[in-house]
Each structure stands twice: as structure tokens, then as C-alpha cells.
Design a protein that fits this description.
This protein is an alpha/beta fold. 44% of the residues lie in helices and 16% in strands. It contains 26 helices and 22 strands.
Length: 684
């Protein structure tokens, strides 16, 4: 059936291309969707529409998936791709239907069925809200990766919004991070990827690839050192301003010369070019190891496994289709890596706590029955995650006496909570959720038993469930170390101890629960200070990760927060909390914008969930008003912006007797402010 359709399209390709070109660049398309007007429609028919139809015809004949990818991507070439997703969806839906009408008018009984035609174009005419936004920075290789980065063809229920920015091949001024940072912040990008050493990204690299055999080894290493220095300074500078996950491609040695890749007896790389590739990769690994949150995209391994000549081979040769598209098999193979990275990111980007089974998960066998074989790599990985702020919780059907901690790489103190008993694991998850007071979608549950996973998934559908026996689980957890929710800060290192102290605190409060005054038994104390530069990472963490007690849920970059620190128009305050059991650390950040004379507005008020329940927020709002009073301010405003998670902060201003002046916008006269005394909190 498909071949019959393809035959009909081939027979009528001239007429089809004429009608479709008129449709794509019609006055309606221009006015309705903002399509750029084309003066020469015949040029568009020959250079765009006919190659587009040829690639579709070849797909219908061969069912080669790569050709479908190219066809669907090529349809975007003159679409309103800079417009909103709604306009793009409307455009593609309209055009796909218009094309179907043209096919029916011309092919008659040989036209495809409507539902088949629409299904073919599903990636263009449907939106998956489960999306990872990737900004790829490099050269045309990144466009190849974009073409094939479609998870739906692997039956994955998510999409990748793939954007590309080119390095300037003619640039002589080094790498510039400013435009990249602006784009990342403006478009809420999740992952930023870089291919510094492919095709024409850096002019120095292009020269080495082209002329390595004519250079001395010393000259090659000198050039390489200069490029690596550029890359290192660029990544360090960008990392200082954003905590987004970076993917960095290493060096494969592609592309090959125009004819060289077709000659089987000629080696793809000479000895000096191989040396350059090896030297660059060694130096690049050193750079990546010393900068946080970078994941390596191993181009070299792909090119070795698949064959460098095969990787460089065109999928839809220009000489055959005469189109504007140029794609190689290298883009196909790299796209599979991007899909895996995006899937792992989606699963774990919110992860704050890992609930992990013991038997047959952390070791092979049942410890109560005798000797076991420990999975030391898994235990080491979990320990490393704990050290960058992920909370570990033991969820095991067992008795604690049977656990031989002395055998394990993970120790008892590495776990914030132990749920080691014979109760259903879904109940253990409920207890942990209640104790940690963070959203369920911040929890990851790992177990080897599919029945246990199913029971937990049924009881807690928002919890991420991972199979302990799947290699992909541990690969994804390794990736978690490079996501923004993990950072090697002092605060992160102390997080497990803090939750252990919280457990002791809850136990101490249990006999006298029910009255806030009984909190005095904890010996609670707090600090209130103007923010210090040494705390910038924790300030950023609170502003960008706090969801529940967050009055506005505004997120700020490091650059923006540093501007607040130095600005005469802003005040930044921090607060720490502690009690007789220990120090909870820096738990709150308040940013105050100074408006016209005598007027201030609380721009940001965030407080860690572990500080909730002690009325610290009441003490802090008092401190802010008192500070402003002493500086001569007469009014202070505050706004509450509701979200799906920040209801715990909804009553802050009304509870402090701020006057409601419009919906969710409050004001207090500083001189008349009547502070509520929080007797169980002492400022130190």
C-alpha cells in the first residue's frame, strides 16, 4: 500500500510540488502564520518542495526511519519556528491537512488514508508536555543530532525541544558565553550541550584536522593547548553564572575529506591527526573532571564502534535529492545518546531523596540467610550522591539486627532514615514523605522486586520508580551527580545529618506535641544577617530549589543574585536556624527591593521546608520591618504569587497583619507595625 502511494506521488511529483509550493508560501500562510514571503516560488518548488517529496517517497518505499526523521524536520525549514509552540502547532496542522487535500485531488484513489497521513505527521501536530529543553552549541553537527532526537520513535513518552546556536567559524575573539547565557535564561533551558571539536566549530580545530600531517607534533600540541585553554575558560565562566547541566562532546576526528571516506584502502586518519585527537581528548577530560555538572558525550567511542567512515556517510546524499538537508549516520548515533540523557534527566531532575531496597539491590542474595556478594559500585555511587545532597532512606523488609553494616561500603550514618521492618513498603514511603516534608515527585524508589515496585507505584504515582536490576537505573543515577539538584556544597554534605537530627527532634517533641509553646523545649535559636558572599551557593540553592515556602517562586541566576548583593537598590538577608540538637544551617533568604524614597518591597522570601513549623517566618518578617524602620522607611509591600506548591506561605503577610490592597498584594506601615512575638525563638 505504501509503495503504491509512493509510486503515485512519483508519477505526479511535478504537479504535487507546484500545488504544495503555492500553499506553503501563499498570502494566507504569510498573514496567518508569519511565513516569510518568497519572491520566487519556482525556486522554492525546485529547491525545497521537490526534495521534500523525494525524501518522503523514498521513506514510503523503504520504511527507513532515518528518512522519515529528515522529512519531518525539513518541513520545519520555512515554518514559524521562532513563534510560540501554539502557533507552530497550528501551522503544521493546517499545512498537513492542506497537503492531504492536494494529495486527494491529484492522486485520487491512490491517496493515503486520512488517519494514516495524520499519524505519519504526529510529531509535528501534537505537543508532549513532558519535554526536556536542550540548547546545543556548536556547528552543523548539532543540527544533525536535532533531526534525529525524537523519543517517540523509541516509544518514549516525552519530547526534546532541541534548539541550536552556532559557534562562529570565522571568530578570532575566542568563545563568547554572553549570548548563550541570555538564551538559556530567556528560554528556561534544561541542558546545554557543546561540540567544540566537530566540523567547523573552532577555526583552530579545522586547521589542525586539515593540516595535521604537515605540522610537527610540537606545533600540534601547541595549537591543542590553546584551544583547550579557550574551552576551559569558557566553561568555567559559564558555570559561574548558571547551574544547568552541561553535555560536552569529546573529539572524534570527523569530518573526513570529500572523497577520502569512500576509499576503503585509505586510512581515515593519519598518525599526526590521530595524535591530535588523542591529545585533545586527554586534556578535555582533565577540564571536565574539574568543573561541576558536566557529562561527557563520547563521540570518539561512537566513531570507533560504528566506524569513522560509516559515521561520515550521508543518509540522503545531496547528489540524489538536491535538497538543502545534509545528514550523516553520526547524527543518528549521537541522537540516541541525547535521548538517553534526556530520559534520565526527566526522571531525576527533581530528585531530592532516594528510597533504596537492600537485599538483591545493594548486594546479591539475602543477608539474613548468610553470605552475600556486595554491589560495591552501587553503594559507592549512593554514597557519592549523599555527599552532594541527596537524602538516602533504607526501605527494606528485614530486621535491623540482620544488617551487617561492617561489611558494607554504605554505613548506617549514611541514611537519614531507616525503614527496616516488615510493614508494606508503600507505608514506608508514606512515613518518609511525611518526615521529610518534600513533594512526592522528589522521591526515587529503587527495588529489584517488580511486585514491590508496582505496589509503591500504585500507592504513590508521583514517586519515580526504578528497577534495581536494570543497568539504565545506575547509569541514570550516575548522571544525577551532574544535575542542578546535586551540588558539592558544605550544606549538601550536612543534609543527611540534619535530617537525622530532625528525627531526634520529632522524637523529643512527641510527648508534648499540640502546643507551639512546647517548642521552647528544643532551645530554638536563629540568626538574621545581611547576606555574605561566602554563602552565595546556598542562597542560590534556596532561591532556585525552594517550592513550598516561596512567596513568589521567582528564580534568579547567579549573576542576578550577585547584582543584588552589590546593588544599592536591594537588600539581601539570610537566616540560620538551630536548636539543642544541632544547627539546621542557612534556611531562609529574603530579597528586598528599595523603591522610591521611604518605600520598600519584599521581592523574594524563601525558607527551607526543614525550617517550617517553628514560626521562623514570623520572626523574620518582624526582623525585616524593624530593619527598614531603622533605615527610615515608611512602607513595605509584599506579594504572594500562588503556585501548585507554595500554599504553606500563603498566609505570611495576612498573618503579620499586612493590609491587603489588591489581590495577593499587601502593605504594612512600618511605624505602626505590630509585631507578633515568637517566644520560643531566640536571636543570636
Amino acid at each position: 500500500m505504501l509503495k503504491n502511494i509512493a509510486s503515485g506521488m512519483q508519477d505526479k511529483i511535478s504537479l504535487l510540488s507546484e500545488k504544495m509550493a503555492d500553499s506553503y508560501f501563499s498570502e494566507f500562510s504569510i498573514t496567518q502564520f508569519g511565513i516569510q514571503k518568497k519572491e520566487n516560488i519556482e525556486e522554492m518548488r525546485v529547491g525545497f518542495v521537490i526534495p521534500l517529496l523525494k525524501i518522503l517517497i523514498e521513506y514510503l518505499r523503504s520504511s527507513r526511519r532515518e528518512l522519515l526523521y529528515i522529512y519531518l524536520d525539513e518541513r520545519k525549514r520555512y515554518s514559524p519556528h521562532l513563534s510560540t509552540s501554539e502557533i507552530q502547532l497550528s501551522y503544521h496542522t493546517y499545512m498537513v491537512k492542506a497537503d492531504y487535500r492536494i494529495l486527494c485531488d491529484i492522486l485520487l484513489e491512490r491517496a493515503p488514508k486520512y488517519e494514516d497521513w495524520m499519524a505519519l505527521h504526529a510529531p509535528l501536530i501534537s505537543i508532549n508536555n513532558n519535554t526536556v529543553k536542550v540548547l546545543a552549541v556548536g556547528d552543523c553537527l548539532m543540527n544533525e543530532v536535532r533531526v534525529f532526537s525524537n523519543p517517540s520513535y523509541f516509544k518514549k513518552d516525552f519530547s526534546i525541544d532541541f534548539r541550536c546556536i552556532y559557534f562562529s567559524a570565522n571568530s578570532s575573539g575566542g568563545l563568547n558565553s554572553e549570548s548563550i547565557l541570555e538564551y538559556v535564561n530567556a528560554n528556561n533551558i534544561d541542558i546545554v550541550s557543546f561540540s567544540f571539536f566537530s566540523f567547523e566549530a573552532l577555526p583552530e580545530y579545522s586547521r589542525i584536522i586539515s593540516h595535521a600531517e604537515k605540522m610537527t607534533y610540537q606545533e600540534i600540541e601547541h595549537f591543542c593547548d590553546g584551544m583547550i585553554s579557550q574551552v576551559q575558560l569558557f566553561l568555567i565562566g559559564l558555570r559561574a553564572q548558571t547551574n544547568k547541566t552541561f553535555l560536552v562532546h569529546n573529539v572524534s576526528g570527523l569530518p573526513l575529506g570529500r572523497w577520502r571516506k569512500y576509499l576503503p584502502l585509505v586510512p581515515p586518519m593519519g598518525p599526526k591527526k590521530k595524535n591530535a585527537v588523542k591529545y585533545l581528548n586527554e586534556k578535555l577530560i582533565e577540564v571536565i573532571r574539574n568543573i561541576e555538572n558536566i557529562i561527557l558525550v563520547d563521540e570518539l567511542s561512537v566513531s570507533i564502534e560504528k566506524g569513522i567512515k560509516h559515521c561520515a556517510k550521508e543518509i540522503a546524499p545531496q547528489r540524489k535529492y538536491h535538497g538543502m538537508f545534509h545528514t550523516s549516520y553520526f547524527g543518528v548515533y549521537l541522537s540516541e545518546i541525547y535521548i538517553q540523557e534526556a530520559e534520565a534527566y526527566l526522571s531525576l531532575k527533581k530528585c531530592k531523596a532516594i528510597l533504596v531496597d537492600f537485599d538483591n539491590t545493594l548486594w546479591s542474595g539475602v543477608m539474613a540467610d548468610g553470605e552475600v556478594k556486595h554491589f560495591t559500585a552501587r553503594q559507592q555511587l549512593l554514597k557519592e550522591l549523599k555527599n552532594v545532597g541527596i537524602i538516602l532512606v533504607a526501605v527494606s523488609k528485614n530486621t535491623e539486627e540482620n544488617i551487617r553494616w561492617h561489611e558494607m561500603l554504605l554505613k548506617r550514618e549514611d541514611f537519614a532514615f531507616l525503614q527496616i521492618h516488615w510493614n508494606p513498603k508503600a507505608e514506608s514511603v508514606s512515613a518518609t514523605v511525611g518526615a521529610l516534608n518534600i513533594g512526592k515527585d522528589s522521591f526515587v524508589f529503587i527495588d529489584d522486586n517488580r511486585h514491590e515496585r508496582a505496589l509503591v507505584a500504585d500507592a504513590h504515582p508521583d514517586v519515580i520508580i526504578l528497577d534495581a536490576e536494570a543497568d539504565s537505573t545506575w547509569v541514570a543515577l550516575e548522571r544525577l551527580k551532574s544535575y542542578p539538584n546535586t551540588q558539592a556544597t558544605e550544606e549538601a554534605m550536612k543534609r543527611t545529618a540534619m535530617y537525622q537530627e530532625q528525627a531526634a527532634r520529632n522524637a523529643a517533641l512527641a510527648p508534648v506535641a499540640g502546643s507551639l509553646e512546647n517548642l521552647s523545649a528544643l532551645g530554638l535559636w536563629y540568626t538574621f544577617n545581611e547576606a555574605k558572599l561566602e554563602n552565595i551557593e546556598r542562597v542560590l540553592e534556596l532561591i532556585n530549589r525552594t517550592n513550598q515556602f516561596n512567596l513568589t517562586t521567582i528564580r534568579y541566576s547567579k549573576k542576578e543574585v550577585l547584582e543584588f548583593y552589590s546593588s544599592k537598590r536591594h537588600l539581601v538577608f539570610t537566616s540560620s536556624l538551630g536548636d539543642k540538637f544541632g544547627d539546621l544551617g542557612l534556611v531562609a533568604v529574603i530579597v528586598v527591593a528599595l523603591k522610591e524614597e521611604g518605600v520598600a518591597e519584599i521581592d523574594t522570601f524563601v525558607m527551607s521546608c526543614r525550617a517550617m513549623g517553628f514560626s521562623l517566618e514570623k520572626a523574620l518578617i518582624n526582623e525585616v520591618v524593624f530593619f527598614l524602620r531603622n533605615k527610615g522607611f515608611t512602607k513595605v509591600y509584599g506579594r504572594y504569587v500562588p503556585s501548585d506548591r507554595n500554599s504553606p506561605s500563603a498566609s505570611l503577610y495576612s498573618g503579620a497583619k499586612f493590609a491587603l490592597i489588591e489581590e495577593n498584594y499587601y502593605c504594612a506601615a512600618v511605624e505602626a507595625f505590630n509585631a507578633e512575638i515568637v517566644s520560643w525563638l531566640s536571636r543570636v
